[in-house]
Amino acid sequence: MALSRRVGKVLGRGRGEERRERPPLMDRGRFDVSVMAILKDEAPNMEEWLCHHMAIGVDHFFLYDNGSTDELHEVLKPYADHGVVTTVYFPMRGLQRDANNHVVRFFGDTTEWIAYVDIDEFLVPENDESIGDVMARYPDAEQVLVSRKEFCYSQNRTPVEGLVTESYREYSLNVPRMGTSETLAKPIIRPRGTARVGIHNAFTVHSRTVNTAGEPTSEEATVIEDPSYANLQMNHYFTKSWEEFQAKRTRATTSTHAFQLPDVPFDIPGIEDHVIDRWQPRTRALMEEMHTLARSPARFGSKLRMPGFPINDMFGQEATAITSNEAAGVLEARKKRSFRGLPMPGVRGAHVRAEDHGYEPRPGRFMASEHIAQEMAWLQAEVTWSALEAEKPLQVEGGDVEAADVPLVRFDGSSGVLVIPAGGDPLRQHALAYVLRVEGTGPVAAQLAAREEGVWVPSATYEMPGTGTYLGLVALEKKPRTIDAVRISLDGTSTVAIYDLALLTFG
Questions:
Q1: Angle 72-81/46-55 helices, nearest 10 degrees?
Q2: Burial 220-248 (b: 16+ CB within 10 A, else e)
Q3: DSSP assignment, residue 241?
Q4: Which of 12, 21, 107, 471 would you call most buried, defined as having the most Cβ atoms within 10 angstroms of its Cβ?
Q5: Residues whose CB is less than 8 angstroms from the CB of residue 15 and which lie 6 or more positions away in sequence, other chains included
Q6: Phi, psi at residue 146, to the nearest 5°?
Q7: In whole angstroms, what is the distance from residue 499 CA to residue 295 CA?
Q8: Predicted confidence band at 23 (pLDDT cuts at 50, 70, 90)?
Q9: In sequence order, what are the beta bridge partners of 502?
Q10: Domain 314-506: which CATH number of 2.60.120.260, 3.20.20.70, 3.40.50.720, 3.60.15.10
């Protein structure tokens, strides 16, 4: 197969397709093998690393940028243009575990396997023609631990020209920086079989972890006394030249921002290893080809910007502070809540009843608050639909609609269903912000759903206990989705007036 055709296949190029103005973040198809990496200021090292892993058959890269100040995104641009790379802006300190779990939560349903690989690490199949062929050897595994070979010492004092994988060919079994001859392993996980991810290992749903020889192994320890290099190994080019090693020692890490590597002996004889040699011609050819290929429709967003990086259920914590502080009349936005809101079990978000705090609803007041403004800045969110701005505020199924004055919308009866547009493109996260007034004797059950590919998918269900004014901020999903409408069902015997309603998108 001609190289250009092969690259086109790897990159998923389409013919005759028009480039979208706002390409979706994620393709609905599944990848076989993807790679996740956290990096900072690695622009000089990216092309060989990317092209090597493309050469062995990696389909996509999820790159978490830990606050790079070099030309990283310029280097990544051709790869982003062709849908090979998705970057997540991740400037946080000490949150490697959160990033490792974030890729599973946000992108896990797009790929069969995710390999955790640093920029100085190279996966190397032993005999198979691709990493996909290697992973097919483990049909029942939920995690494969890949042992590293430490290519960490050499005679080179200054950086060498050419490929790293051609320049450094010796590895050591006894690495003084580790104080042991044991070998570190790195995980390749099946997202659907992963419960949680640590730093260098994961804990699986059914405890199906194997080494590269297919032998069951412990999930607890990633430092291995008797490593297996059968089928697949990981080359770790830890030091490279002396000058590069010294620069690495002084550069902050993604986890601690304080690199504390010891000044270890540098020139240590090693064992020659040439397993990677057969991949070098493909790597070089891909590096050249990437700069000559015409731009193709982007199947993926090139950058997912999350300055606040929502970890765990931080959205729910933020929503509690926003709604309670607004209801209490707190003027300045702050993270600490003024009071606890109403219970919403199983829902990412919060809502409060404002009567006890003197809150007077009026159209647009909630969305104009400093609390909402700070949250939207934190999430890099935007308002994609607002009842105040829409010419046709809502599509109503059941109930009665009054003129769009004050209140904006009112409907009565045992059931009312409101449908609002959600754009449909690109893949994003969605949240509803609202202020509504309930008048009546009984509770009102709120049921939120999102329409994805013509199917209504339930998002959140909770209750407003009775008469009162309710302020709410509720997420519709835990990870990005492509939806074209949101349905709000309010069931009960009360009359409901909506004073403020907006759809926020982020991610």
A1: 30
A2: eebebeebbbebbbbbbbbbbbbebbeee
A3: S
A4: 471
A5: none
A6: -105, 120
A7: 47
A8: very low
A9: 386, 433
A10: 2.60.120.260
**Rounded (10°) angle between helices 280-289 and 46-55:** 120
Q: Where are the domains of the chain?
A: 3-300, 314-506
- pLDDT greater than 60 at residue 210: yes
Which three-class secondary structure state does DSSP give residue 42?
A: coil
- Please state, in angstroms and rounded to a whole number, the distance separating the CA atoms of residues 322 and 343: 15
3-class secondary structure per residue, 69-95 = CCCHHHHHHHHHHCCCEEEEECCCCCC
231 has pLDDT over 70:
yes
pLDDT for 68: 86
pLDDT higher than 60, residue 497? yes
CATH number of the domain located at residue range(s) 3-300 in this protein = 3.90.550
- Asked if 133 contacts 217 with a C-beta cutoff of 8 angstroms, the reply is no
Distance from C-alpha of 88 to C-alpha of 306, rounded to nearest angstrom: 7
Query: Which tokens in the block code for residue 214?
Result: 């297919």
Task: Round to whole Å and give the CA distance between 154 and 242.
Answer: 8
Element (H, E) at 315: helix 314-327
140-188 pLDDT, tens digit per residue, is: 999 999 999 887 655 666 777 788 888 888 887 766 554 445 578 899 9
Query: Dihedral of CA 96/97/102/104: which sign?
Result: positive
Pairing of strands 121-125, 232-236: antiparallel
Q: Does the CA dihedral 163-168-169-171 come out positive or negative? A: negative
Q: Are 168 and 217 in contact (CB under 8 A)?
A: no
Question: In this structure, what token pair is assigned to residue 43?
Answer: 């622009």
Longest dimension (CA), the chain: 83
SS (H, E, C) 3-30: HHHHHHHHHCCCCCCCCCCCCCCCCCCC
- Token pair, residue 305, equals 């910007």
DSSP states of 124-183: EESSSSSHHHHHTT-TT-SEEEEEEEE----S-SSPPSS-HHHH--EEBS-BTTTTBS-E
pTM over 0.70: no
Closest-CA residue to 268 (of 153, 176, 150): 153
Sign of the torsion formed by the C-alpha atoms of 11, 14, 15 and 20? negative
**3-state SS record for 380-434:** CCEEEEECCCCCCCCEEECCCCCCCCCCCEEECCCEEEEEEECCCCCCEEEEEEE
